[in-house]
Amino acid sequence: MMPIFTLLLLGAAEFGQVAYYSIEVNNASYAGAVYGAQNHATAADTANMQLAATEDAANISSMTVTAVSSCTCSSGTAITCGNASTNCVSPDRIAEYVQVNTSATVNSMLTYPGFPASFALHGQAIMRVEQ
Asked: How many CA atoms lie within 13 A of 87 on its CB side?
């Protein structure tokens, strides 16, 4: 009976580790988006959005982060942020967004037959920039 309980305990610990890292990866993308959504200057600062995300999940060394900003007119027309004021004419308003994507691979503590040796985790956050 003891080997079965040990296996169940190890399975629960494995599930808990993957769940924890999944939350970390998602929270990191949110932290980067929160930084970028502060104003127009921080929305253009993709390096510090990536830094904010990376520092939020400092214990995940294999995490990769990408950050982008984009603009649209309130009518739905896609425009670049550089020419937004000329291409988005009244009564349309400019809407600026930031998007931060995170991903990490977490290795399994133990290898089990029929289960993967690593788990790919992904996070994404999209926020509108404060005007």
From this structure: 13
Residue 85: Cβ-neighbour burial (10 angstroms; 0-12, 13-18, 19+): exposed
Number of domains present in the structure of the chain? 1
Would you give the DSSP letter of residue 130? P
How far apart are alpha carbons 51 and 106 in whole angstroms? 20
Single out the residue of 99, 25, 41, 95 nearest to residue 67, CA to CA.
99
Give, as one character, the DSSP assignment of residue 110: S
- Rounded distance between C-alpha atoms, residue 13 and residue 84, angstroms: 50
pLDDT tens sequence across 84-116: 777 787 888 888 999 999 999 998 887 777 778
Structure confidence at residue 7 (pLDDT) = 83
Domain with 38, as residue range(s), is 2-128
| SS3 (DSSP) at 131 | coil
Instruction: Express each pLDDT in 48-91 by its tens digit.
Output: 999 999 999 988 888 999 999 998 888 877 788 877 777 787 88
Rounded alpha-carbon distances, angstroms, from residue 53 to 66, 102, 109, 112: 9, 8, 25, 32
